């Protein structure tokens, strides 16, 4: 029995079925559809201006490599923004070492400038050292907060006016659910894929906001990207894993759950709320929602 044909071009065999839309796509049409969706999100959320200077967070995983590749194609054809790949070395032995080599080779192949910043240089400790010390919070709580600060810092160093991250639809829905479970509706505004502008804070955009993770995985496979094989040794400590498991189960039985969760989150709190409440940390002087930023709180407690 022959494979079903692509519902877009009606010629080539399909390699992917989208349960939430009913489409069956061949490799060419599948990759084109992701590019169109990213471009649509950029335009709809007004993520970029003409000649923006964009720092693209690239970790070496499928999502960030897909983001860099698609964003370069889109910007070469439209806005003409300048892209600079930026990577954070958290200092996780084995895991991050492998990723740095992958990112360096990928950036050379795509002809994109690459900058690197490390936890050791910015905070005086590697993630391995923090994880080995006495702490009341999980390693992922430290890593997530410090990595966000590091990305903002390196984006400022390269004079970027946008910071693009590889958050997929899955990530957006997971963050929405986690904020609800924690009763932290104030952070729901950070899900806005268009980001917001605030002094000392490089506007963060999420062009993959409407792309499911399984589709970035397929895109990376079809493009033949070299991908990281070593898992993060601290990933098991994160509450996000529970949210991921639940949402994946719901999506499998009720296609469209991820989109519904994400779109509901966007309606709850506008991004302007976060922008209006930003202050300056009394210790480091960086943007903060309170008197002392989360980075300084964690570094004092570690």
CATH structural fold name: Rossmann fold
CATH superfamily: HUPs
Structural class: alpha/beta
Count structural domains. Answer: 1
Number of helical segments with 4 or more residues: 12
Unreliable residue runs: none
Strand adjacency order, main sheet: 5-4-3-6-7
- According to DSSP, the number of beta strands is 9
Q: Write down the overall geometry.
A: globular
**Can you tell me the CATH architecture?**
3-Layer(aba) Sandwich
Helix percentage: 40-55%
C-alpha-based Rg, rounded = 19 Å
Tell me about the biggest sheet?
A: 5 strands, parallel
Overall mean pLDDT: 90
Cα separation of the termini: 61 Å
CATH class: Alpha Beta
Following the backbone from N to C, one meets helices and strands in this order, namely EEHEHEHEHHHEHEHHHHEEH
Strand proportion: 5-15%
Textual characterization of the structure:
Helix 1 (27-44) packs across helix 2 (62-77) and helix 2 (62-77) packs across helix 8. This protein starts with 15 loop residues before the first strand and ends with a helix. The longest helix has 19 residues, at 139-157. The strands form 3 sheets. It has a 5-stranded parallel sheet, with helices on both faces. Helix 2 (62-77) links the parallel strand 3 and strand 4 (82-89). The protein has a single domain, classed as HUPs (Rossmann fold, 3-Layer(aba) Sandwich), CATH 3.40.50.620. It is an alpha/beta fold and 302 residues long. Helix content is 48%, strand content 11%. It has 12 helices and 9 strands.
């Amino acid at each position: 029995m022959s494979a079903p044909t692509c519902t877009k071009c009606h010629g080539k065999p399909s390699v992917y079925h989208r349960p939430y839309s009913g489409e069956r796509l061949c490799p060419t049409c599948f990759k084109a559809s992701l590019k169109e969706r990213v471009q649509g999100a950029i335009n709809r959320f007004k993520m970029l201006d003409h000649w923006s200077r964009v720092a693209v967070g690239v970790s070496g995983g499928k999502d960030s490599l897909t983001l860099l590749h698609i964003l370069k194609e889109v910007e070469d054809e439209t806005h003409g923004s300048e892209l600079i790949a930026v990577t954070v070395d958290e200092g996780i032995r084995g895991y991050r070492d492998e990723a740095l080599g992958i990112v360096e080779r990928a950036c050379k192949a795509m002809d994109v400038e690459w900058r690197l910043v490390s936890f050791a240089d910015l905070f005086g400790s590697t993630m391995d050292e923090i994880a080995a010390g006495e702490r009341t919070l999980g390693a992922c709580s430290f890593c997530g907060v410090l990595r966000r600060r590091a990305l903002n810092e390196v984006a400022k160093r390269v004079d970027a006016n946008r910071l693009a991250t590889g958050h997929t639809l899955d990530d957006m829905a997971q963050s929405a659910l986690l904020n609800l479970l924690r009763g932290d509706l104030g952070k729901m505004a950070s899900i806005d894929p268009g980001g917001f502008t605030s002094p000392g804070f490089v506007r963060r955009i999420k062009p993959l906001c409407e792309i499911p993770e399984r589709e970035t995985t397929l895109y990376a496979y079809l493009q033949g990207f070299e991908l990281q094989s070593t898992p993060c040794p601290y990933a098991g400590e994160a509450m996000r894993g529970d949210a991921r498991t639940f949402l994946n189960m719901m999506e499998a039985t009720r296609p469209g759950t991820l989109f519904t969760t994400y779109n509901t989150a966007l309606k709850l709190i506008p991004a302007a709320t976060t922008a209006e409440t930003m202050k300056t940390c009394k210790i480091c002087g960086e943007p903060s929602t309170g008197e002392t930023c989360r980075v300084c709180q964690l570094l004092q407690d570690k």
